[in-house]
Protein: Pyroglutamyl-peptidase I
Organism: Oryzias latipes
Amino acid sequence: MDNSKRNVVVTGFGPFGEHTINPSWVAVQELKKLGLGSNVDLHVYEVPVEYQTVQSLVPSLWKQYHPQLVVHVGVSGMATTVTLEKCGRNHGYKGLDNSSFCPDSQCCIVGGPDCINSVIDMESVCKRVTASGLGVAVSVSKDAGRYLCDYTYYTSLYLSHGRSAFIHVPPLGKPYSGEDLGRALQAIIREMLKLLEQAEEKINSQQHIH
């Protein structure tokens, strides 16, 4: 196995409500076509809109791939930009999923912190991608919406000590095509990986000093 290759896992969500084809999964499939460069092994998964599946699937992805980064992508009917979520929240899950289930505790991890921030500086990613002239508007948000998007993000952040990201995309054609969204995901995730690598270099150089 080529050790210089990094595993990156990107998930989109399956159908729910009026989204018979979930734009997040369309965007992730477009990203898969584009790839993240020759030194990244990109693994993509479609996640059903079900709390219990997320509870088992997210840990299994971390175990199987030991990824450098996991990025979850979801659709937001209210979004008009590609939105980078800064944090996941533990409490307030009252919405029923596709199997009409909702956690009794209404939280992700009983006893977990209220809010977990990503280690990735989303403001910085947003600035860099915007400056690159991609033609897709990118913004940053602190509220992933307390449904399966937020639930998945919190679960991933908890397991990865913050080495996860969540990106909300608008519905297709409002205003972006699947291809546009795929290009945006590619640019955003590349910036995220650069930031992570810089942070790792910093940590490594500090360890060498002592």
